[in-house]
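Need a sequence for this fold. Nothing fancy.
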């Protein structure tokens, strides 16, 4: 763990490990920006605590009691600060899955540990089989709710099925296995054939850019404000496709 001074801000970098029975050893680390009271001795301990919970986008430490309090998404939208506290905000979070998680019909969900505002980015590293064997598909869904999204949850869906890619909004859970919805595009064969692929979502004011291995695939104009998106879900289509999740990371704007 180290502290790097940069202008009037302090960036705290650290690494922590989480062990679960389902996925073996997961490594999670991130960067924080201190917004007030940079020299508070409780900042490192508080950063380590809130790093473990994605529902916290930041935290504050009492100057009087050194008590750490996690700050939720609503604070991220309006970062007000009170006197008597040291504040810190997550600017980068990366979670690595070792071994990789098998993506199945039951979705893998990951709460976005910040606000998906213009300039923010989500990166998902997955394994795809070679193009000839890719008979199934994988679905990425950005939702405004946390947990199992409901029919009323506004969604942004990006679906890969064979060589086709589909982009749509406002799908319900029942729509995912139905006929293709929204706009249809051709996914680059080279991205399927290489096996490993990083798929990224870059937020803009009224649109989101989909990237494949840092190359722009398509920019989709959204009907909704993107900073309302709270979670990404990943699941396969009913036909088996052997897709594995290796890493998810979020970078704030």
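Here you go.
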């Amino acid at each position: 763990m180290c502290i790097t001074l940069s202008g009037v801000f302090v960036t705290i970098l650290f690494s922590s490990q989480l062990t679960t029975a389902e996925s073996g050893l997961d490594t999670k680390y991130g960067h924080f920006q201190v917004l007030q009271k940079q020299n508070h001795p409780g900042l490192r301990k508080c950063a380590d605590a809130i790093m473990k919970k994605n529902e916290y986008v930041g935290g504050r430490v009492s100057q009087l009691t050194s008590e750490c309090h996690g700050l939720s998404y609503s604070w991220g939208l309006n970062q007000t600060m009170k006197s008597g506290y040291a504040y810190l905000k997550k600017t980068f979070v990366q979670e690595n899955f070792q071994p990789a998680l098998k993506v199945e019909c039951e979705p893998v969900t990951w709460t976005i540990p910040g606000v998906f505002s213009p300039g923010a980015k989500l990166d998902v590293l997955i394994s795809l089989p070679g193009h000839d064997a890719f008979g199934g598909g994988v679905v990425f869904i950005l939702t405004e709710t946390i947990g199992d999204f409901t029919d009323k949850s506004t969604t942004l869906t990006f679906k890969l099925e064979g060589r086709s890619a589909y982009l749509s909004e406002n799908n319900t859970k029942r729509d995912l296995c139905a006929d293709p919805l929204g706009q249809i595009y051709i996914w680059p064969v080279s991205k399927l054939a290489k096996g490993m692929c990083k798929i990224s979502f870059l937020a803009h004011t009224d649109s989101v850019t989909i990237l494949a291995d840092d190359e722009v695939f398509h920019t989709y104009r959204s009907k909704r404000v993107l900073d309302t998106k709270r979670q990404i879900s990943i699941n396969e289509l009913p036909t088996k496709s052997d897709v594995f999740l290796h890493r998810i990371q979020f970078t704030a704007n």
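For context: The CA atoms of residues 100 and 185 lie 28 Å apart.
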